[in-house]
From TrEMBL:
It comes from Niabella ginsengisoli. It is found in: Cell outer membrane. This is RagB/SusD family nutrient uptake outer membrane protein. Its main location: membrane. It comes from the Bacteria. Transmembrane segments: none annotated.
């Protein structure tokens, strides 16, 4: 996981908790383990994380003199060192909404939370302009490149995006549209858009891929994790292989109550 997170789009560090390890002195006090590698992303987040995105992670509390410091990431349900907070099955903890602002006593936080972001508007506009055949460098500069500049990522150069730009691209998707969709996937991760986007693009089959977690040596975690393929080292597995996408999922079933109220309605195909 340490290698996987190295030299990546900065938005990854703000969306998924980077790996680290600390020694707990007495909760919530901690110290570095003395192993430089364990603190690699602790130091990185000091430079880019601002006030709210710092490592190690701490369980929310009224003040940071109480609560718990999480000793390491990845932090598994089946190997959590007695800390039941901020655990995962696969090792990737979504901490996009995590911050260090204290909560009040009743857990009724008055801290701001985003409901509608300008980033969504920019990405909607970029995709719309492509579908209208009007996406050019000027549109890229006022949409996607605004987002990339914020993350210190290189600007999208429309003229450079051709068939060989991404060799892992879905061949059914035009190269430039693929990059627009990639930006949407990165920027809006964990905000509830992905499933509807896949339906809108008629790409539900993307969900047929086996979900896998971080790559680990199981012995480092008490041999408690399930490793894909059954080996001693490899990707953590929790979910079984998906049953497979069915085209009927592109439409939602009509509620039975509505069908009963209006006899003119017909159920969508393949729903009984």
């Amino acid at each position: 996981m340490f290698a996987e997170f190295r030299n990546r789009d900065r938005r990854l560090y703000f969306t998924v908790a980077p790996p680290y390890k600390v020694a707990i002195v007495r909760q919530p006090e901690w110290r570095n383990t003395g192993v430089a590698a364990d603190a690699e992303y602790i130091e990185l987040m000091k430079t880019i994380g601002g006030t709210n995105k710092q490592l190690p992670m701490q369980q929310w509390s009224k003040t940071w003199t109480t609560g718990s410091t999480i000793s390491q990431s990845p932090h598994f349900r089946l190997f959590n060192g007695g800390q039941a907070q901020m655990i995962t099955e696969l090792g990737y903890l979504c901490w996009k909404y995590y911050n260090r602002l204290p909560l009040d006593n009743g857990n009724n936080s008055s801290n701001d939370a985003p409901i509608f972001r300008i980033e969504e508007v920019l990405l909607n506009y970029a995709e719309l302009m492509f579908e209208l055949g009007q996406f050019n460098q000027g549109v890229a500069d006022i949409t996607i490149n605004k987002l990339r500049a914020r993350a210190n990522m290189p600007a999208l150069q429309v003229a450079e995006v051709g068939g060989g730009f991404d060799t892992k691209r879905d061949a059914d998707v035009q190269p430039l549209l693929w990059e627009i969709r990639r930006e949407r996937r990165v920027e809006l991760m964990a905000e509830g858009f992905r499933f509807n986007d896949l339906k809108r693009w008629k790409k539900g089959t993307y969900l047929n891929k086996q979900p896998l977690g971080v790559s680990v040596r199981n012995a480092d975690y008490g041999n408690r994790l399930k490793i894909y393929g059954g080996g001693a080292q490899g990707y953590v597995q929790y979910f079984d292989q998906p049953a497979g996408w069915l085209d009927k999922y592109y439409l939602e079933p009509l509620p039975t109550q509505d069908l009963a109220l209006n006899k003119q309605l017909e159920q969508n195909p393949d729903y009984k």
